[in-house]
């Protein structure tokens, strides 16, 4: 039997929660797991693959906790608009025309971008999710998938969509060598009436799955929620029972102290999407207050149509910068915290307990940055460089579930030329339909 063991020698490894956050040494991968990381060189063995880690910085793969991958087809289509106008006048009319093939190629384009940029796990809420899952299977990436449902339709159609969401969640949970897990996802409190939202909560209970939704992204949405239901969105969702399930909410920009308390008490995670929130002028989330209240805050890009890329290094840097800027406190969201939001907290907030850290027993989901470049020298503080100076373009290698999927910047699992061509054709097809 082939020895499925790899040893990385002479590398620098990021362990952001540790007292010494940059470890110089060795890491061993056996099958899908990290079996050793430390300063001591492991005993040499026959048949082991050796990777020379010098000039590379190894870190956990980035975890993107909110997005709509097929929306890469709408990148640049509808810039400089506020959320509701952007959704109603630009996104939804185009998305109505999306076929399964469009979703397949849009998702492929995004997954290619994410893999090459060091994202090893992503969350996706969208339609035609079987096609998204196909891309995940093929590409080797890890993903938490859910059929996102907008309930602004007849009860009959609502129930059809709910049935689709349930079937998808049931069929794909644990598939692709365990790389796919699923959740239940009503799109938002303003697109899913209360009785319909409650059906999702019930389905999540029945399937024993967590829940995800957009929440409190804009001031207008909060005001509308109060006008419609007499409650702010957090209390509204609490009343509908969402937080009786393990939950993650995206955005959570407009929160008061009481709402932060409710999220903290129910252990609800927040996916902070700084790039998308800035671009849609939604506001700046109270990330420092959330973290101080013990809320798990992770990072997401949202779709490429509101970002307009899927570079998680950029989100990390934005998170580390904007909260300093708005608070006037230079210690707000320091580099180790931004890094943990993009890795360890990300994994926790999408309920993956073996992902997000470089440690023995964890899944071998990690990336290597080429640190021998002008903008990453001198090697004063490599954790600082990874947050404040690096970008997706610095990713040299990527491993997921113990398998190398990007080597010297080239994706080994996807056909880049075909994906770029097909995605362009899909977009042109959408314009003609
Ligand atoms: C039901 S599939 C997902 C749905 O969400 C829409 N969407 C994309 N970005 C956002 C956002 O920032 N807030 C709310 N909704 C968003 C997307 O266009 C799909 O229709
Ligand atoms: Zn979104």
Automatic annotation (TrEMBL):
It comes from the Bacteria. Residues 59-405 form the Amidohydrolase-related domain. SUPFAM superfamilies: Composite domain of metallo-dependent hydrolases (SSF51338), Metallo-dependent hydrolases (SSF51556). Pfam families: Amidohydro_1. Substrate binds at residues 95, 147, 187, 217, 302. Catalyzes the deamination of 5-methylthioadenosine and S-adenosyl-L-homocysteine into 5-methylthioinosine and S-inosyl-L-homocysteine, respectively. Is also able to deaminate adenosine. It catalyses: S-adenosyl-L-homocysteine + H2O + H(+) = S-inosyl-L-homocysteine + NH4(+); S-methyl-5'-thioadenosine + H2O + H(+) = S-methyl-5'-thioinosine + NH4(+). Binds 1 zinc ion per subunit. The lineage of its organism: Bacteria, Bacillati, Bacillota, Bacilli, Bacillales. Its EC number is 3.5.4.28, 3.5.4.31. Belongs to the metallo-dependent hydrolases superfamily. MTA/SAH deaminase family. Its cofactor is Zn(2+). InterPro entries: Amidohydro-rel, Deaminase_MtaD/DadD, Metal-dep_hydrolase_composite, Metal_Hydrolase, MTA/SAH_deaminase. This is 5-methylthioadenosine/S-adenosylhomocysteine deaminase. GO terms for molecular function: 5'-methylthioadenosine deaminase activity; metal ion binding; S-adenosylhomocysteine deaminase activity.
